[in-house]
Give the backbone structure.
Amino acid sequence: MDATTVLAALEGNVATMGYGLAAIGPAIGVGIVVGKTIEGVARQPELAGRLQVLMFIGIAFTEALAFIGIATYFIFV
């Protein structure tokens, strides 16, 4: 095993761990968005439709972070 092989294996492992860490942010973000939406519906049930639409928009934006993490994984591997 030469140094190049070891370095390539190390870079792949670091990129995989980096994506795993990058997925934590969107997961926390989606949890907060959904939790606050449930809280808002509990306080104002008549706004459930509007809050649900805003929740889905918020989830889409936070999941965009996960897609950026996937793209950087493939760029660096």
Remarks:
- The chain has a mean pLDDT of 82.
- Helices lie at 3-43, 48-76.
- The CA atoms of residues 29 and 66 lie 11 Å apart.
- The first helix runs from residue 3 to 43.
